[in-house]
Every structure is written in C-alpha cells, then in structure tokens.
C-alpha cells in the first residue's frame, strides 16, 4: 500500500475568503436519499484520520471506498498470506458510522502482485490463475460477507486504445471469459453484495461502445452485474458533460445502475485525460504552479463545473446510484502525487477540511431544487 504523507502538507491558501458559514448541510443531505455520496480514503480507519477529518467524513458522506487496502497487492502481497488488518478496522469503523463500504477492487492488472501470474519462472497456466482468483475472491469477499455494499469486481478491462479488451496477464492467460469468471466467483462468495464493472474514460463514445459490448456479453451470459462505475478523473475545463449524459443513458438502458466512482477535477494541466496509474510525468518545481494555493479565478471555474456536474447527476438521480470522490479533501488526493508530484486542489474541501466555493456552488444548486428522489 502506498501512503503519501508529503501530500498532506498545507500550502498557504489563497482561497477566496468565504462568509462565515451558516449551518453547513451534509452533501449526503442535499443530494437526497436515492444517491449515495462517498469518498476514498487511504490507510486504516479511524487511525489514519485527524479528528477534523473524521468529522468531515461523517458529516458529508454515507459511503466509503478504501483507496488501496483491498487491492490484491495489499490484500494478498504474497501467495496465501492475507494482509487485511487495516481493512478489518476500516470496515468496522465504516459500519459503526453508517458508511456503506465499497470494495475496491478484486481484479485489476495494476497493483496486482506478479506471483498471481507466475509459476516458478514460467507463466501460470489458465487453471492455476483461475484457482488463485477463486481463492483470493473467496477469502476477501467471504471475510466481509454482509458487510460490504458492493465490489468493483473487475477494474479497467477495456483497452485504451484498442479493439476491445485490454491486453493483460489476465486475458493472456485465461482468455476474455476471465471477467465473467471473476463476477461469478464474487457472486458465489457473497450473493447479496452488489457487483460492479469500473473503468475510466468509458463515457467517451469509442470506449463507451466497447464497454457496452462487455456489459452486454456479461449480462447475456447470465452473470450478475449491478452497476457500471465511471471513474470520473476529469480535468478542469474538459469535463465531458455531453458524453457523460449519453453514457448514463446508454448504461442505464442495459438495466444497470450507474456510479461515478472516483470523482476529482484536476486543476493542474496534464497531458491526457486518462487515469492510467502506470503513466508518470516528471514535474519540475516550476510546473508546481499552485504550490502556494489555487488562484480564485481557477477555484471559481472549478465551482461552476462541479455545480454543472451535480446538476446533471441530479437530473439523472433515477439512474445514478452513487457518486464517490477520490479523496476526502485536497490534501488527501492522489493527484498530489500522480502522474507526478505537484500540489493539487481537485476536491470540494481544502487541506484544512474547509468547504471550498465548489462545495457552496454544489450545495446551493442542489438545495434550490430540493433533494430529488428516484421514482
Ligand atoms: C490510486 C490510488 O489513489 C493511489 O494511492 C495509488 O498509488 C494508485 O492507485 N483508478 C483506480 C484507483 O481504479 O484504484 C486508482 O487509485 C486511481 C485510478
């Protein structure tokens, strides 16, 4: 697991002075009962949280995604040795505080240890890989049976770019059916847990079509899939609102719920809109443009775009079952260290856990419409 204490630093804030806050409504209250609102947090809870962070989490959110703890690389770093102590504490804390736990993630070509795909010096056989998947899924999902609301069963299986599926050790060894196999294993381990397919850029037409194909194939094969997770690692001024709306409608038309699972709005330029964790850029100190704080004008654009995004979500509250931010506040965002080290300001709360004007814009817009509940 990666923790990045350096990113928790508190650069002098140039944030616009806000009026003294009135009673601050929780995001979960303004969003309405039909849509869960969550965030990802790294490390074991509550130990990893400062008191002010714990308060922020419990006031605004009703869902929690352990950011790294449940990934195969952390959950089973060497074969047969499961490392779930921090995850146990986090799940217990979340349940005690009415936070639905999202299990992220069972199978992913990233943050998955090499041993999964090897047999000595050679590649594992198909049978060996499937047996390891079953053991991993059965152990992890089984351990939290009845405690985890839903699992990201397969993460990022669609190629970018490519004809259809991403070429990974999973597909190389076990073929395209490996995705359906993982869903079946997860369902057997906890028949009541929701099961999700999660990926980035799948709102964009070309990747959306290939995702629809995968989902259709899974559903036709009789596999349980409850929802599709659109990660939502977007860039300021480049939020694909129209593509997102079309994607929500298209995924919902298959009979699936839609979730925005890893939302953040990057304010520092980066070369591409992807979220491939293998990508790395070296940023110089000069590129760390918002080290001393984020300019008002940028924060205002971010506020407008967040409000527009939540207005879209509000209008589709009958289709969107959850929105989760990838981080609790700006100081805890992975965008401070991916795709390279820089100071980022992508979320609704600043490093001191104060709501930013983006929070105000979202809350005001949602309040003006009243919470929308699905029919
Ligand atoms: C990221 C975490 O936030 C980082 O702490 C870690 O170093 C790398 O992974 N898509 C996903 C998430 O599905 O699991 C990734 O999380 C971000 C991109």
Structure description:
The protein has helices at residues 27-31, 51-60, 72-75, 85-96, 126-143, 169-174, 178-189, 205-220, 241-253, 296-315, 357-369, and strands at 36-41, 63-66, 100-107, 118-119, 122-123, 150-155, 194-199, 227-230, 233-235, 257-266, 320-325. Helix 5 (126-143) runs parallel beside helix 7 (178-189) and helix 10 packs parallel to helix 11 (357-369). The strands form two sheets. It has an eight-stranded parallel beta barrel, surrounded by five helices. The protein contains eleven helices and eleven strands. It has one domain: TIM Barrel. The protein has 375 residues and is of the alpha/beta class. (3S,4R)-3-hydroxy-2-oxopiperidin-4-yl beta-D-xylopyranoside binds at residues 2, 42, 67-68, 155, 231, 262, 275, 277, 334.
Which helices and strands appear, and what pairs or packs with what?
Elements: H1 27-31, E1 36-41, H2 51-60, E2 63-66, H3 72-75, H4 85-96, E3 100-107, E4 118-119, E5 122-123, H5 126-143, E6 150-155, H6 169-174, H7 178-189, E7 194-199, H8 205-220, E8 227-230, E9 233-235, H9 241-253, E10 257-266, H10 296-315, E11 320-325, H11 357-369
Parallel strand pairs: 1-2, 1-11, 2-3, 3-6, 6-7, 7-8, 8-10, 9-10, 10-11
Antiparallel strand pairs: 4-5
Helix pairs in contact: 5-7, 10-11
The chain binds (3S,4R)-3-hydroxy-2-oxopiperidin-4-yl beta-D-xylopyranoside.
(3S,4R)-3-hydroxy-2-oxopiperidin-4-yl beta-D-xylopyranoside binds next to loops.
- What small molecules does the structure contain? (3S,4R)-3-hydroxy-2-oxopiperidin-4-yl beta-D-xylopyranoside
CATH superfamily: Glycosidases
Largest sheet: 8 strands, parallel, barrel
Q: What multimeric state do the chains show?
A: single chain
């Amino acid at each position: 697991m990666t923790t990045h204490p350096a990113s928790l630093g508190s650069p002098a804030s140039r944030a616009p002075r806000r009026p003294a806050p009135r009673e601050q409504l929780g995001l979960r209250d303004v969003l309405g009962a039909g849509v869960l609102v969550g965030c990802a947090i790294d490390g074991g809870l509550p130990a990893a949280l400062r008191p002010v962070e714990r308060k922020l989490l419990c006031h605004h959110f009703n869902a929690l995604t352990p950011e790294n703890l449940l990934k195969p690389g952390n959950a089973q770093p060497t074969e047969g040795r499961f490392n779930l102590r921090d995850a146990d504490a986090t799940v217990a804390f979340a349940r005690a505080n009415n936070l639905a736990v999202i299990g992220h993630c069972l199978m992913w070509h990233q943050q998955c240890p090499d041993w999964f795909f090897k047999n000595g010096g050679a590649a594992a056989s198909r049978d060996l890989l499937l047996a390891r998947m079953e053991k991993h899924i059965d152990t992890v999902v089984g351990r939290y049976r009845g405690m985890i609301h839903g699992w990201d069963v397969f993460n990022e299986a669609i190629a970018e770019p490519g004809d259809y599926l991403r070429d990974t050790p999973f597909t190389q060894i076990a073929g395209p059916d490996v995705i359906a196999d993982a869903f079946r294993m997860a369902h057997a381990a906890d028949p009541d847990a929701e099961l999700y397919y999660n990926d980035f850029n799948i709102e964009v037409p070309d990747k959306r079509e290939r995702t629809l194909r995968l989902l259709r194939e899974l559903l036709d094969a009789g596999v349980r899939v409850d929802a599709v997770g659109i990660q939502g690692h977007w860039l300021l001024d480049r939020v694909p609102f129209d593509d997102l709306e079309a994607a929500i409608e298209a995924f919902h038309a298959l009979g699936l719920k839609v979730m925005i699972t890893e939302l953040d709005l990057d304010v520092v330029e980066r070369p591409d809109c992807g979220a491939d964790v293998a990508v790395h850029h070296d940023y110089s100190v000069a590129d760390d443009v918002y080290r001393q704080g984020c300019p008002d004008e940028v924060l205002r654009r971010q506020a407008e775009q967040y409000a527009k995004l939540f207005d879209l979500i509000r209008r589709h509250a009958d289709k969107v079952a959850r929105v989760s931010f990838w981080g609790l506040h700006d100081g805890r965002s992975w965008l401070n260290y991916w795709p390279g080290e820089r100071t980022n300001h992508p979320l609704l709360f600043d490093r001191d856990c104060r709501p930013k004007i983006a929070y105000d814009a979202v809350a005001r817009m949602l309040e003006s419409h009243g919470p929308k509940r699905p029919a």
